[in-house]
Amino acid sequence: MKNLQDTIKLSNGIKMPWLGLGVFKVEEGQVLVEAISSAIKTGYRSIDTAAIYANESGVGEGIKKGIEEAGITREDLFITSKVWTEDLGYEETLKAYEVSLEKIGLNYLDLYLIHWPKEGKYKEAWRALETLYKAGKVKAIGVSNFQIHHLEELMKDAEIKPMINQIELHPRLTQKGLIAYCKEKGIQVEAWSPLMQGQLLNQPELVEIASKYQKSVAQVIIRWDLQNEIVTIPKSVKEHRIIENGNVFDFMLTKEEMDTIDALNMDQRVGPDPDNFDF
Ligand code: NDP
């Protein structure tokens, strides 16, 4: 991994950047448009949004601006969105995909995910994702917030295995069991809230490692993801942090440092528990 454009080949051969930009909780408007276009200018090629973020139009605007300013094409980018729980169902999910496409202003997405594993709903939605994939409307399909038992249940009837499982993952929630399971099944793990939404920035062990490399704690965590072969999508709307978070290819954590970070695990979540959520 040498730069922001380095990719992992998913199980279907599609290449996905290791590092992308998340835009959860960023409202439509100029701040969003600028964040995305400056990320693209910085060299980011992957953007992660979702229908429920209610910002897909601004994401689309940012993409257009970024493409123009960076002199690249749409095909150079990797754009992800997700279907929300109330749109889970065969017809509902097919329709939700079209709505997302229209809002973002693209004619295909690179990755479409089932956002949460709502019981009794996600299997029909998966059939819709398979239909979209087989019709060539989306390059790769996957899930988010799926535990091992959800994946097992999904794959009982699935024709196509998910290419991605996007899960909460950071030094306080290292998800070793789920990662091992996904690896065995050829499902690439992607980390959401990799920075634990900013809650780890003063963690002494991380501060110490960061100071050794003259890097920030955020950079150390992102590096830990990459060295663990986890796709990661830290969110920032500040240009200097977008640049900082992408500047992680000139140092390497030692095995001991990786172990120190792993040992911070407390199985602590900042988001909902996939086995107990009410939406
Ligand atoms: P992150 O862990 O990425 O943390 C983002 C927070 O950290 C923001 O407050 C940001 O502030 C701050 N920050 C970013 N970079 C730095 C830095 N270098 N130094 C100091 N502070 C920094 O949280 P998210 O929850 O946003 O997760 C990332 C992405 O994952 C989301 O944006 C979304 O795309 C995805 N996601 C998916 C979920 C799912 O269910 N599938 C759930 C939650 C997130 P500022 O912007 O002011 O810089």
Tell me about this structure.
The chain has 279 residues and is of the alpha/beta class. The protein has a single domain (7-262), classed as NADP-dependent oxidoreductase domain (TIM Barrel, Alpha-Beta Barrel), CATH 3.20.20. It is 41% helix and 15% strand. The protein has helices at 30-42, 56-70, 90-104, 122-134, 148-157, 176-185, 204-213, 217-227, 239-246, 255-262; strands at residues 7-9, 15-17, 21-22, 46-48, 78-83, 109-114, 138-144, 164-168, 188-192, 231-232.
Describe the structure using short key phrases.
alpha/beta; 279 residues; 10 helices; TIM Barrel; binds NADPH dihydro-nicotinamide-adenine-dinucleotide phosphate; 10 strands
CATH topology term: TIM Barrel
CATH architecture: Alpha-Beta Barrel
User: What order do the strands of the largest sheet run in, or round the barrel if closed?
Assistant: 3-4-5-6-7-8-9-10
Strand content: 15-25%
Based on secondary structure, the structural category is alpha/beta
CATH class wording? Alpha Beta
Give the CA-CA distance, first to last residue.
38 Å
Enumerate the distinct ligands.
Answer: NADPH dihydro-nicotinamide-adenine-dinucleotide phosphate
Relative helix content: 40-55%
Write down the overall geometry: globular
